[in-house]
Amino acid sequence: MIISELLLGESKYVEYKRDYTKTMLKTVSAFANYHDGHIVVGLDDKGIVVGVIDAADIRLSIENAINDAIKPRPYYEINEMLIQDKTVVVLKVYKGDQTPYLLENRAYKRMDTSSVQVDRHAYQELILLGRNLSFETLPSENQKLTFKKLEEKMVQKMDIINVSDDLLVTLRLKSKGHFNNAAALLSDANPLKSSKIQLVAYEDESVTRIKDRQNLENVSVLEQYDDCIAFYRKHINIAEVIKGPYRETVEEIPLVAYREAVANAIVHRDYSRQVDIRIEIFGNRIEIVSPGGLPVGISESEYLDGRVSIPRNQIMADIFLRLKIVEKLATGIRRIKENYRNYDKKPLFEINENSIVVILPKTNQPEEKYYRPVDSEAYNLNENEQMIYTLLKTGDALSRSAIENALGLKKSQTIDLLGRLRELNLIAQIGRGRATTYVLKTYDRTK
């Protein structure tokens, strides 16, 4: 990373320290567990260059502290840089493969500009990744599985007559005579409680009046996918329009975009968490909520760019690819965007710590109505959280420092409060570094 990028402000990938302190080891753990990152010693939290007096001594202290306290030892580099005629020490930590990287038996992750301890689910995921495993590769608790739906799809798309044991091994659904969780998800009775999908259609743009609801459980994820498409066809208008000598299909919401979003939700969701995929059809949009944030190793910008794919469930992703449910890995987001290319309204992607939300607007509705209303009282907000929520009701996008100054809060306190409001899906973060601001989810950020 060049100097100019380091000076853009603190972010998920950059932390400033005025002086060397062992508290920075939490950030070393976070970077080693999830993604490369830089810690700059000699900059205060506002990005002002203060420099260091004895760079060599600081480098030695950092090296000794990491080697003694972080287990296993992460890979890192320490360099000195001259910025505005002052010396700073730059520690670059690389994401490691031997996760979790622990500090005093705790693993950390970055949340905005702070480093916080991971929860139980994230810790288990790091353990599996460190062993080159994932939830889908673990043995299924139920070994009495059948695959008629998978066989039906294989016949249609691959001319395969039957799903034999050899084929199940080839598809990596069976190993050493045992089915794994990926096999359970694809099986006809799908016993995993964490694979439920809720489908809801509302009368209008709010959640007050439900006109249709389906719960998809104990069926193959392949059948879930088909049922999601059927639910779309039931509630989304598709018309044929004659333009001159040609007949053109007009869809309220592009079917291809919806299919890609649903396939992504099924393939990439975190099945270790017992939280349902939720697909809601409103009068002006469809919202698809997939449990689990981004997989380890992919950044928000890489996800939104749509050119890098790290499937959380690689076995299932490969099978969806073979069955042509998805055309090519790492193209889903781009295909969603492409299918809105000729419309003024564009899809929105909300990336949270524990979920990813795709919002597909209807092409015949005003753009400002994309967002759902939220009721802060239903979330049991504490006094400070309620103050931030009320402050953001003005509709203005505010920086962390502006919120601190307006409410008289401390930096660390504000970071924690904003993090919780983001986890509750009440606010959204816009931008990075010094340009980072926060808005309520009820306001359209595209203007």
Short description:
The protein is of the alpha+beta class and about 450 residues long.
CATH class of the largest domain: Alpha Beta
Low-confidence stretches: 365-373, 443-447
Q: Kindly state the percentage of residues in helix.
A: 25-40%
Structural class: alpha+beta
The major sheet is characterized as: 6 strands, mixed
| Rg from alpha-carbon coordinates | 24 Å
Q: What is the general shape?
A: globular
CATH A-level architecture of the largest domain: 2-Layer Sandwich
Q: Which fold name is given in CATH as the topology of the largest domain?
A: Heat Shock Protein 90
Share in β-strands: 15-25%
Organism: Fusibacter paucivorans
InterPro entries: RecG_C_sf, Schlafen_AlbA_2_dom, Schlafen_AlbA_2_dom_sf, WH-like_DNA-bd_sf, WH_DNA-bd_sf
Protein name: DNA binding domain-containing protein
Pfam families: HATPase_c_4 (PF13749), SLFN_AlbA_2 (PF04326)
